[in-house]
Design a protein that fits this description.
twelve-stranded mixed beta sheet, Anaerobic Ribonucleotide-triphosphate Reductase Large Chain, alpha/beta, globular, 21 strands
Length: about 700
């Protein structure tokens, strides 16, 4: 069998002894000496070349061999030669990347590491943000492997890097030093402004300062996170300040004129102006996020969910939230935001409607009707359903168990403070295929991988604690986030592709159900094994906007089987026309998601909008099946000629008759122009199957 080596870019090529001889000979010549055949043979006799050895390991062995043969000057020359070539290669690679990035169709396609559709435009700011990412990856790997060596030994650290380089696992957000995402409590800001996190603003004292201060606070918080910033209390706090100015019953007289200026604004107009100020401000790109808009998430609640979370909550002045006014404000924001999305492309906030269920249906009938009505009117948001308020969706799929949803002045609004510190993802397709090739049962192979990723996450947590003790994480110190309430997340990708390789049909059948239970149950068992008072783990089917394409590309390159160019992030095949919308709901029901304690998102792709009655029935089906997180995805049309936005999927603009159109749809968790997607994701978007209403 031919021996292969692994190059720095992960590619494999045949091992060449001649190249090593040439490198050693050049090192000798640079010192004024000549290496004859005997000398070369003696040096090469020290080398131990194994299949799939890395280039770096070969070079390390050469250095040791030169030292062992007492060619100290030559060894130094070899090291200097190696370092110079490394530096030259890095500069050359950076220049090539710069050129390719400038020529790419969009920022997502041009990015080498984060193919993120949230970046609207490609410019010098986005380029500057991309250039240091490789260095951040090296730094993060060094920080983490040093910690792993101390806690678990060098062998595990080396194994971790090997699994990363060979794409069995993937460390999300290695290009950032910040922890991942957070659902924050805003209470510290309510009582202390942004002073505790390095800002200059005082606590909000009225509706105007609330709006301006909230924008600043979200920008500051998000700059200290690599992922999303969720503000579950956003509308509840806003309602508090509206009531302070216009009375507890303001919603009953929202058409009352209260602005004595020439504008003569009503209460409702003042409120919608506040909505506009906040939403449009946060949707602007910011330099702190590489010219992306802030990943901002909010929640709506039905009455029972609200009471479970906030019944014992107190504002600083001793008053309590009022459900009647908050409910009105939630509905007003829903309606306003839905309409506003016909005027401008507004990606954020990502909205989630939290509904409690009981006896196979939504418990709060009013909010069941509201949810169905908003879907029927073309609004695009997520629904999160649970039979008890013991968890909260804080991202575009991430689900986090609430440890304590009781309010306390020490911790802030307890239950809403959660999130994920770090995500480390297992490439299930590669792992399972490789296990089968080696004649190992894939569960035994996965068990070793699963144990390793948990230990790596524990090491990451220790590094995070070090940052915390050094005062580098003000969000934790100030109480916006509690480190003990944040999860270490084990991500999964390539599950469908792995099942396909094993010959399992991808539909609701016992073999597939058992496969899912075996794989995800294994991960959950290790989540429980390593959990303690300081460490919480969950498992998430990651959105894989970027890595879904990468895993497919890497695996195909290395000889693993895959039927598509982007791995699925669902329990079904997204392009499969045989699986209708009613089949997809059970595939994301309790039998499949029970081990996904970190969540998964069901995207029900539809060709056109349904009626209110149809959506309401689908809510009942979801409740019965135990499908807890989903949205309905209908592509919106954007006219590039006149900028008209239509909530239907059209071929011709109804305003100017132009066929120069773009489409708004969810790249995975958030809505964006398809033209903003990376090329790999654009290819995936073309293959998506959008079900016809007649199939219901």
């Amino acid at each position: 069998m031919e021996t292969t080596i692994i190059k720095r870019d992960g590619k494999k090529e045949p091992f060449s002894l001649e190249k090593i001889k040439q490198a050693i000979s050049k090192a000798f010549l640079s010192t004024g000496n000549f290496a004859n055949q005997e000398t070369l043979t003696n040096i090469l006799s020290h080398l131990r070349i194994s299949n799939e050895i890395t280039v770096e390991e070969i070079q390390n062995q050469v250095e040791i061999a030169l030292m062992s043969e007492r060619y100290y000057v030559v060894a130094k020359a070899y090291m200097l030669y190696r370092q110079k070539h490394l530096e030259d290669r890095e500069v050359r690679d950076k220049l090539n990347f710069l050129i390719n990035y400038c020529e790419a169709n969009n920022a997502a396609t041009g990015s080498q590491y984060d193919a993120n559709a949230n970046i609207e435009s490609k410019n010098i700011t986005t380029l500057i943000g991309e250039l240091p990412k490789e260095n951040f990856i090296r730094l993060n790997r060094k920080l983490l492997t040093d910690r792993i060596k101390v806690m678990f030994g060098k062998e595990l650290a080396d194994k971790y890097i090997d699994l990363l380089n060979q794409h069995y696992i993937y460390k999300n957000d290695e290009t950032s030093l910040a922890n991942y995402c957070a659902s924050i409590t805003m209470y510290p800001w309510l009582i202390g402004g942004t002073l505790s996190i390095g800002g200059n603003s005082l606590p909000p004292s009225n509706l105007k300062s609330y709006c301006g201060g909230f924008i600043n606070m979200v920008f500051m918080v998000s700059s200290m996170l690599s992922g999303a910033c969720a503000t579950p209390e956003f509308l509840m706090y806003m309602d508090y300040f509206i009531r302070k100015e216009y009375g507890d019953d303001y919603y009953t007289e929202s058409d009352k004129i209260v602005d004595l200026s020439t504008k003569k604004r009503t209460i409702d107009k003042i409120i919608t102006d506040c909505f506009e100020q906040i939403v449009y401000s946060i949707n602007q790109p910011t330099g702190a996020r590489n010219f992306q808009a802030v990943f901002w998430n909010i929640s709506y609640y039905d009455k029972y969910y609200f009471l479970s979370l906030f019944e014992n909550f107190y504002f600083p002045d001793g008053t309590v939230p009022k459900w009647e006014s908050l409910s009105w404000l939630q509905q007003r924001f829903l309606s306003w935001f839905n309409t506003e999305r016909t005027r401008a492309i507004l990606t954020f906030p990502v909205e989630t409607m939290a509904l409690l269920t009981e006896n196979g249906d939504v418990k709060d009938e009013e909010y069941g009707a509201i949810t169905a009505k908003m879907y029927a009117e073309g609004h695009s948001f997520f629904t999160y359903m649970s039979d008890r308020a013991d968890s909260l969706s804080s991202c575009c799929r991430l689900r986090n168990e609430i440890q304590d949803n009781e309010f306390s002045y020490t911790l802030g609004a307890g239950g809403v403070s959660t999130g994920s510190k770090s995500v480390l993802t297992i490439n299930l397709n590669r792992c399972i295929q490789d296990a089968c090739k080696k004649g190992i049962h894939y569960l035994f192979f996965l068990e070793e991988i699963t144990d390793l990723v948990h230990k790596v996450q524990i090491a990451y947590n220790e590094n995070l604690k070090t940052f915390l003790t050094k005062g580098m994480l003000p969000l934790f110190d100030a109480g916006y986030i509690n480190i003990k309430r944040q999860y270490l997340t084990i991500g999964v990708n390539g599950l469908v592709e792995a099942a396909e390789f094993l010959g399992i049909e991808i539909n609701d059948n016992q073999d597939y159900k058992q496969f899912v239970a075996d794989v995800l149950g294994l991960i959950e068992s290790y989540n429980h094994k390593y959990r303690n008072e300081e460490l919480m783990f969950n498992c998430e089917m990651i959105p894989a906007e970027n890595v879904g394409v990468k895993h497919a590309k890497w695996d195909k390159r290395d000889g693993f089987k895959s039927k598509r160019d982007c791995y699925n992030s669902y329990f079904f095949i997204v392009e499969d026309e045989k699986i209708n919308i009613l089949d997809k709901i059970p595939l994301h029901g309790r039998d499949y998601i029970k081990h996904l304690t970190g969540g998964s998102a069901l995207h029900l792709n539809l060709e056109e909008h349904l009626s209110e009655k149809q959506y309401r029935q689908l809510l009942r089906i979801a409740a019965i099946e135990g499908c807890n997180y989903f949205t309905f995805n209908i592509p919106n049309t954007v006219c590039n000629q006149c900028n008209h936005i239509d909530k239907k999927h059209l071929k011709v603009c109804p305003v100017c008759n132009s066929s120069n159109l773009d489409y708004l749809t969810r790249v995975i968790g958030y809505m964006k122009r398809v033209s903003n997607f990376s090329q790999g994701r654009q290819n995936e978007a073309v293959n998506r199957y959008y079900a016809k209403v007649s199939q219901l």
